[in-house]
Specification:
Layout: H1 2-26, H2 35-44, E1 48-49, H3 50-57, H4 61-73, E2 77-81, E3 89-93, H5 95-116, H6 121-146
Helix pairs in contact: 1-5, 2-5, 3-4
Length: about 150
């Protein structure tokens, strides 16, 4: 059990470091903690529903609603009532998001380069495979919690 704790502790530490680095960079664009995650997913999935976005990011619906309200006020996104379900919203990038998206992607890719520097393609494939397996295991527990 100790080894499993150490592995997950490493993952959490890496995640916190990445978040700190990105937050420092994204503050320059008037983005607060984690908002870049919403923006990249919305840009890559225009018309995504609020519920789908919450699930994709593994963030509760209330937190998603608050984050989207702030992003809409800042002019990064537009929300429209869903044509399918009038109780839900679909989210689209606004011109401000479209203009900064290349910057966001560059910053995200730079962080990935720092963290994965020196690994071979084979090692990267193995890391990705193992992390996906961990995510699937954790997702099943997360799903139980959310239901």
């Amino acid at each position: 059990m100790l080894k499993e704790r150490e592995i997950l502790r490493e993952i959490v530490t890496i995640s916190r470091c990445i978040a700190s680095i990105r937050n420092e960079e994204f503050n320059k664009q008037d983005l607060t903690r984690g908002q870049h995650s919403f923006l990249t997913r919305i840009m890559e999935n225009p018309g995504i529903s609020q519920e789908e976005l919450s699930y994709m990011l593994r963030i509760d619906k209330t937190t998603t609603a608050k984050a989207l309200k702030k992003l809409e006020e800042k002019g990064y996104i537009k929300k429209h009532k869903s044509k399918i379900d009038r109780r839900s919203w679909t989210i689209y990038p606004d011109t401000k998001l479209i203009s900064i998206y290349p910057y966001l992607v560059t910053m995200i890719e730079n962080t990935a380069k720092y963290g994965l520097d020196g690994f071979s393609e084979s090692e990267l494939d193995t890391i990705k495979l193992f992390l996906e397996r961990i995510r699937v295991n954790i997702d099943s527990e997360w799903m139980k919690l959310k239901k």
